[in-house]
């Protein structure tokens, strides 16, 4: 009754983005990492260099999926 729900991308291991706190002006805001496991407050991640760390789930974002290519048929359905 008083539980919290996790977003679906936090429930399964995969690629995620973690906020970069110390950066130069030209560097990206996020780094891609491998999400190992997560609960409502914290997540265990693995950086590209193999280092594991624990971060707050508020510092994570889902990794963007490639856009699906629209076919001619789906485009015609949008126009009609």
Mind explaining what this structure looks like?
A five-stranded antiparallel beta sheet has the order 4-3-2-1-5. The longest helix has 8 residues, at 72-79. It is globular and about 45 Å long. Residues 68-72 and 75-80 have low confidence and may be disordered. It is an alpha+beta fold. It is 15% helix and 35% strand. A hairpin with a 5-residue loop joins strand 3 and strand 4. It has one domain (8-64): SH3 type barrels (Roll).
Helix-strand layout with pairing:
Blueprint: H1 8-11, E1 14-19, E2 30-38, E3 42-46, E4 52-56, E5 60-62, H2 72-79
Antiparallel strand pairs: 1-2, 1-5, 2-3, 3-4
Assembly annotation? single chain
Order of neighbouring strands in the sheet with most strands: 4-3-2-1-5
The level of helicity is 10-25%
Question: What is the total tally of β strands?
Answer: 5
Nearest-angstrom radius of gyration?
17 Å
Strand percentage = 35-45%
CATH overall fold name: SH3 type barrels
Provide mean pLDDT, rounded.
84
Biggest pleated-sheet summary:
5 strands, antiparallel
Total individual domains: 1
Level-1 CATH class name: Mainly Beta
Salient structural properties:
5 strands; 15% helix; 80 residues; alpha+beta; 5-stranded antiparallel β-sheet; SH3 type barrels
Quick take:
By secondary structure, the protein is of the alpha+beta class.
């Amino acid at each position: 009754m008083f539980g919290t729900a996790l977003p679906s991308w936090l429930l399964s291991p995969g690629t995620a983005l973690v906020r970069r706190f110390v950066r130069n002006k030209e560097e990206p805001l996020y780094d891609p990492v491998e999400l190992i496991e997560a609960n409502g407050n914290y997540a265990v991640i693995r950086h590209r260099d193999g280092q594991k760390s624990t971060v707050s789930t508020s510092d994570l974002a889902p990794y963007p999926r490639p856009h699906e290519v629209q076919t001619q048929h789906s485009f015609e359905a949008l126009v009609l």
